[in-house]
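Review form for a predicted model. The reviewer records the input and the model, then writes brief findings.
Reviewer: anonymous (R2)
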Amino acid sequence: QVQLVESGGGLVQPGGSLRLSCAASGFTFSSAAMSWYRQAPGKERELVARITTTGGTRNYADSVKGRFTISRDNAKNTVYLQMNSLKPEDTAVYYCYGREVILLREYDYWGQGTQVTVSS
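Model under review:
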């Protein structure tokens, strides 16, 4: 059974930092491109950051460039999102997402989400 379990969310003051983790199981993690999405109240879910299978390529939304860093540890089946210089507009539920391609067929996996609140 595929599972993506996020952790590390919480309440933080503006300018603070948080590190999100996503532990994966039930699929070949090293073969999956991984991403973090977020969804704020009343808004659509948006892509925050993406990392390829080996970590060689990372992409970020313009709103988080220079502040957030995505990374992965294929030995631990875990993807991370280091968030620095947090702003109130970063408040959202953050979701871990994985896409695995097997024999040209795509499989999409989602975590349950973790709440990040940036407030003084």
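Findings: Residues 21 and 80 are 5 Å apart (CA to CA).
Further findings: The chain is about 0% helix and 55% strand.
Recommendation: see findings above.
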